[in-house]
UniProtKB/TrEMBL annotation:
Tree of life domain: Eukaryota
Record family assignment: Belongs to the very long-chain fatty acids dehydratase HACD family.
Protein name: very-long-chain (3R)-3-hydroxyacyl-CoA dehydratase
Enzyme Commission designation: 4.2.1.134
A Pfam match: PTPLA
Length: 237
């Protein structure tokens, strides 16, 4: 963690933040899986999980601030890109109430997105909370830096499917557009569907950046673990 995290007040704040976030995302995960396990339709899964997802995804904006002011060592731009992409999904695509969002909410990719997000965040926040006070157990470290191989593509892929499906429905039904703002005297109009497609385009440079950042972090952790094991072996000889 960053040096500021050693401050007792900051350390306590970050601990409480991480624990609360772990619980919130855990509720989102449990309710999503529970709805699917009980063979309820996707609308039930959404209705149960979305309030938790919405609240704790929005509070992740604090992590951008944490990075900016030095509470944590997470790269500012990487954190900003990841948080904003999800905020976009939650507030622009899933939150508004109209025929398009209602159709998107029951799309299967919403449930896979919620599951990928929730597992990722439960692992991450538990890792952070423990790391503030002591060494994180190796199994949790391994999961933290290995699960993303599956969860990141699953989450990002589900996000893209949801966004593209929403854009398709808006383009197919122009009367349902959330907004249509004329751009001066150009004759062009800014529509919700265009905004969504523009948001999707950010995944092209954004996802590889986030993914390979985690790959590089995993290499560092694995290298450190191997070195520690060698040192332990030498001492035991």
């Amino acid at each position: 963690m960053a040096n500021l995290a050693k401050n007792p007040v900051v350390k306590l704040y970050l601990t409480l933040y991480n624990i609360a976030s772990f619980i919130g995302w855990g509720c989102g995960l449990v309710f999503t899986i529970q709805a699917l396990a009980c063979k309820q339709d996707f609308s039930q899964s959404f209705a149960l999980a979305f309030p938790y997802i919405q609240i704790f995804q929005t509070t992740m904006l604090l992590e951008v601030v944490h990075s900016l002011i030095g509470f944590v060592r997470s790269p500012f731009m990487t954190t900003l890109m990841q948080v904003l992409s999800r905020i976009f999904l939650v507030w622009v695509i899933l939150f508004p109430t109209n025929a398009v969002t209602e159709a998107v909410r029951v799309f299967p990719s919403v449930s896979t997105m919620f599951i990928a997000w929730s597992i990722t965040e439960c692992v991450r926040y538990s890792f952070y909370a423990i790391n503030l006070w002591t060494t994180v157990p190796w199994p949790l470290q391994w999961v933290r830096y290995s699960a993303f191989f599956i969860l990141y593509p699953l989450g990002a892929g589900s996000e893209m499917v949801c966004a593209l499906y929403a854009a398709y429905l808006y383009l197919k039904n122009p009367e349902l557009e959330m907004f249509a703002v004329p751009i001066g005297s150009t004759g062009y109009t800014l529509k919700a569907s265009y905004l969504i497609l523009a948001g999707c385009s950010t995944y092209i440079p954004g996802f590889p950046k986030l993914y390979f950042y985690m790959v590089s972090q995993r290499k560092k952790i694995m290298r450190k673990h191997r070195e520690e094991k060698k040192q332990v072996s030498k001492k035991s000889e």
